[in-house]
Each structure stands twice: as C-alpha cells, then as structure tokens.
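Thread: quick sanity check before group meeting

JM: Hey all, I'm pulling together slides for Thursday and realized we never actually wrote out the predicted structure for the chain we discussed last week. Dropping the sequence here so it's in one place. If anyone has concerns about the input, flag it before I start.
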Amino acid sequence: MDALAEGVRGAGPGEVPARLCDVAVELLPVTGASVSLHSDGMPVQLGASSAQAAYVTELQATLGDGPCQSAAESGVPVLACDLTTGRDVLRWPVFAQQATAAGVRAVYSMPLGTESVCVGTLDLYRDIPGDLTDRELRTARLMAGMMTVALMALPRAEEPGDPEDEGWLSGLATDQDQVYQAAGMLMAQLGIGTDEALARLRAHAFAHGCMARDVARDVVEHRLRFDRD
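JM (edit): ok, ran it. Output follows.
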C-alpha cells in the first residue's frame, strides 16, 4: 500500500495508470505491465510501464486473442506461464509467436472490476517463462483491485474539473471511436456485420505488420478502402 501511494504521489489523472504499472513492476518479478479497459472485445490501453508492454498489449487488441482477451471474457486471472512451448502455445499460437519475438515469454492477466463485471485487465509481462508463487499472485490480485479503485476515481468528461486533466480520456475515446467508425464504414462497403468488419480490420493489420487502430485511422481518413471480394 505504501508503494502504491508513493507511486502515484503528485501524478495527474493521465499519469496514474502508467505509474501504477511501474509499481507493479517494482513489486512483482515481471519486466513490464500495462492496463486496459475493454469494450465489446476491443481493449483500450490506458498506460504501460514500457514500450514493450505497450506493444504486446496492442498486439492482443489487433489479434483479438491472447491472455488479456481471455481474462476479460472469463473475469478470472489467466496465467500464460510459458509462451515458448506447451499448452499456452497451443491456446494462442499466433500471439505466442509474436510475443516471444518481442521478448515476452510469460503473461499474467488480472481482470479489473467486480466478480460480476470485468471492465478491463492488468497485464503483467516477463522475459522468462515461469509461474507466480501464491504470494506473488496475491500481490498481483491486490494490484488489480487497487487499479480498479484508482480508475474508478479518475475524473470523467461529465465531471467538473481541469479540462487538461480530462483530455487524456478524450484521446483514448477518440482511438476507440475510430476503430468502430472504420468498422461501420466496412459494414457499409461490404455489406457485412460488426464482428466480421472488426475481424477484417484485425486481419489486414496483422497481414501488413501494423496495429488495428492504425488501419482504422487509414480507413476513416479515406486512405484505405476494403473492396468486396
């Protein structure tokens, strides 16, 4: 608790998620951490402790697959202790290959929210395979609980306050809105449903080595059009 309090001391609202990710790296045997909110299966990253953690989180959003997606769907912790071999590779083969190529060998995803509602995930990354001990898992669960409380306490756009403090949330909403706006454009162009439109965005991003939000931006700004097959 002292480490959490010290970690966010003097931080503005937009800095809190990344600061808490830094604390998670200090308290646990992991090399990176990120936190995301989840809406309709599309993670919206709020903060990360490093570029590597941010990349692997965005990778899961692009693939629509991975431990954080599974944790958000199930509402329980998902521990991928070895992405180099065994059942974790069989469960997420593409993600495992891409994550290990980025230097991540294990992922521990903690759901954020309540027992009945999962609003996001705290994702912990490690550069070597291995399990968390019972004590480390309790610490990770505590971090997820404190992360949930901290996110609920952050100002929302409808609350009075400093407009500069609220700008970071607006920016995140813009990224997510672009993805769904692009999906809507694909639905109109191709006569397909929402799920297929998001799947096509993700597939195009993966095939071209970029992220889903980058493809969405190109679609919305009319630099990219999907033609009917």
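AS: nice. The chain has two domains: 2-153, 163-220. Residues 163-173 have pLDDT under 50 and may be disordered.
JM: adding both to the slides.
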